[in-house]
UniProtKB/TrEMBL annotation:
It comes from the Bacteria. Belongs to the class I-like SAM-binding methyltransferase superfamily. TrmB family. Substrate binds at residues 145, 177, 212-215. The gene is trmB. It comes from Micromonospora thermarum. GO terms for molecular function: tRNA (guanine(46)-N7)-methyltransferase activity. S-adenosyl-L-methionine binds at residues 67, 92, 119, 141. The keyword DNA repair does not apply. This is tRNA (guanine-N(7)-)-methyltransferase. NCBIfam families: tRNA (guanosine(46)-N7)-methyltransferase TrmB (TIGR00091). Pathway: tRNA modification; N(7)-methylguanine-tRNA biosynthesis. HAMAP family: tRNA_methyltr_TrmB.
Length: 233
């Protein structure tokens, strides 16, 4: 698939956790997408649950971190650069963000990053059980209206799916700047019988999660950021 083949939105499905949105790409992002997608990219299969073998994406076997909704990719790139012994698979639906991450991958010479385009939930359903060392869900769309809560990525059925793909002891790390969502996340994660909170309540802000533009904007707007870190039993 080339950059110009990318559809603006994913095909319709009843409930999606993301806003369909278009976005302009810079010339640099377009070039990065054209050049790097064939090497570092993966299309999430159209049929949810189609097996995806991450071992085929990376030239080595290493613990794998899945970053859901990587946005512009700054966090993925920074964390992967600081953590060379693990591989990072970012999944995003927003093409300019995917292209930006590919550009960062090239600029920083990151051999341990691959980028999937499509719905993270479809991708995860195709991964084998216990195939992930960690799942990162940083600043997921908060869907603040009650009638939209069904779109939230952190909800019981999704959490059960994510947990099943973690190795025992693997971590599910979430961060949000939306206080009510943070409480809802905690309630949902606490209720999952296969997860245990790695901290007593909300986690102290981990130094290894870089501060992104997104987080700075939230802090400037007076929305404190909350981390939640759980381990699979
Ligand atoms: C609010 S942004 C946060 C981006 C990034 N994590 C950050 O911290 O800057 C949420 C992102 O999640 C993506 N997203 C939401 N649901 C998704 C899904 N099911 N699969 C892939 N990406 C998703 C959206 O496209 C959006 O880019």
């Amino acid at each position: 698939m080339t950059a110009t083949d990318f559809p603006a939105t994913a095909p319709a499905r009843s409930v999606r956790t993301f806003h369909p949105r278009r976005g302009r790409m810079t010339a640099r992002q377009t070039a990065a997408l054209e050049r790097l997608w064939p090497v570092h990219g993966l299309d999430v299969p159209d049929v949810p649950g189609t097996p995806v073998d991450p071992a085929r994406l990376f030239p080595r076997r290493a613990p794998l971190v899945l970053e859901i909704g990587s946005g512009m990719g700054d966090t993925t790139a920074a964390m992967a650069a600081a953590d060379p012994d693990r591989d990072y698979l970012a999944v995003e639906v927003h093409t300019p963000g995917i292209a930006n991450l590919l550009d960062l991958v090239e600029r920083h010479g990151l051999g341990n990053v691959r980028v999937a385009r499509g719905d993270a939930l479809d991708l995860v359903s195709g991964l084998a059980e216990a195939s992930l060392d960690a799942v990162h869900v940083f600043f997921p769309d908060p869907w603040p209206k009650s009638r939209h809560h069904k779109r939230r990525i952190i909800q019981p059925a999704h959490v059960a799916l994510l947990r099943s793909r973690l190795v025992p002891g693997g971590t599910l790390h979430c961060a949000t700047d939306w206080a009510e969502y943070a409480d809802a996340m905690r309630e949902t994660l606490d209720a999952d019988p296969g997860l245990v909170n790695a901290h007593d309540g909300f986690a102290p802000r981990p130094a290894h999660r870089p501060v992104t533009k997104f987080e700075r904007r939230a802090l400037t707007a007076g929305r404190p950021v909350t981390d939640l870190i759980y381990r699979r039993r």
